[in-house]
Amino acid sequence: PVGGELASHQWRTEHFNNPWLLGAAVLVRDETAINYNWGYNAPAPGVAAENFSVRWTGSVYFGLNTEYTFYATSDDGVRVWIDGGLLIDRWQDQSATTVSAKRYLTEGTHPVIVEYYDRTGPAVIQFWWEPGAPPSPPSVQPFEIIVDDQDPGFQKAGPTSSWYFRSVGYKGHTYWTYNSDAQLYNSAKWFPQLPQAGNYQVYAFVPKQRADTKNARYRIYHSGQEHSYSIDQSIYFDKWVSLGTYYFAANSTEYVYLDDITGEPYASKKIGFDAVKFVSTAQPGPAVTPAPPPVTPVTPTPTCSIAPILGFGQVWNTNPTVRQRLGCPTQAEISTWSAEETFIGGYMFWRGDLRLIYAVYNNGTWQSFVDNWDEGQMESDPAIVPPAGRYQPKRGFGKVWREQAGVRDKLSWATAEERGLQASWQAYNGGLMLWTQTLGVFVLYNDGTWIQP
Fold first, then answer.
1. What is the 3 state secondary structure string of 219-288?
2. Residue 413 φ/ψ, nearest 5 degrees
3. What structural domains and CATH numbers belong to the chain?
4. Residue-wise pLDDT tens digits, 257-277
5. pTM for the complete prediction?
6. Which residues contact 370 (CB under 8 A, 6 or more apart)?
């Protein structure tokens, strides 16, 4: 295809001598493109010339935050999955036919799976994509709003006898208190007066003294949503620390919250309550949470060909924002063997049927990865020793945690061992919903953000 991106990607390719992708693959190899016209010939020695199937799995880097158009030409059937969402579903006998579908992707690496089968006659499969126009630069001028611990927008609560202050930190003043293991005693809120709605990166100032907890649990309340982000205050000294980027509606109900519950032994650590800064996304700097996509979200109608049911249906039908952002389902809900693990900074999920791993972070973002761990490989790294009561993830979770940039920093240690279980999954035009019995429903949007309704 002219102008499309077709080659220069590493694909793990599995060939099957049946049209259903069943049983053990008769040939497994790496390829750099999905661009074949085999005609009446076999794809490779040992593979049948008819009634065969192939699966390509790749971790593909996309260089823009934009909407991509994906194309597949096949004779006979083809399916395409991106981040575990079914994008193209043309699983039927047919002469060579080209189909396309659009999907917004954030800049970065995304798992892509292409499945193909040939019944009889000529065998053809091509897969490629084209990026849309890059997003326009922000039109607003960058600015920042700071709420210090002595400003009117700062409100602290709890017994005054357990609040202390020190002449350190931002503007030479910080409040602090001792931590609690489980019971709430002291807390504070920072209310910003934002001049306009939009995306803001949120920072907390950590003073060089009276802040040594390893688990300060900030909560960001914004635009009717709540997200959490934990930081280790003991490793920062008079430094602004990012809590992520979030959309704020610029109303009086939005704030950042911090309390004294850290889960550490009672009164063993100190928590600093200093300034909080809100920076408009036009301000240069690393973006922890991608901004919403610059495309019009799909607005579903009651005539979706596949209707969400049960728990997913309840979330979709009762939450207009979820319904608007997800759009219609692209496949029926499925239940498949999965796994989950909780972390200080979020969660990891494994989807067995597609061998995909999802990292869901407390800063409101998520990523997905191909599970490249196989039996016989190292389950965990003996050189990495977690603190007491924490765990190093193992197997596929552990490989992603150790090898994928930023995952370990965002998730930190696991708080429990990995659990295998049946989970429900459903793909939508605008993302995914997943459900586990222990953790409930998660909504993963295509723009790389998530909520738990």
1. EEEECCEEEEEEECHHHCCCEEEEEEEEEECCCCCCEEEEECECCCCCCCCEEEECCEEEEECCCCCCCC
2. -80, 155
3. 11-131 (2.60.120.260), 144-280 (2.60.120.260), 310-451 (no CATH)
4. 999 999 999 999 999 999 999
5. 0.61
6. 12, 57, 58, 59, 111, 355, 356, 357
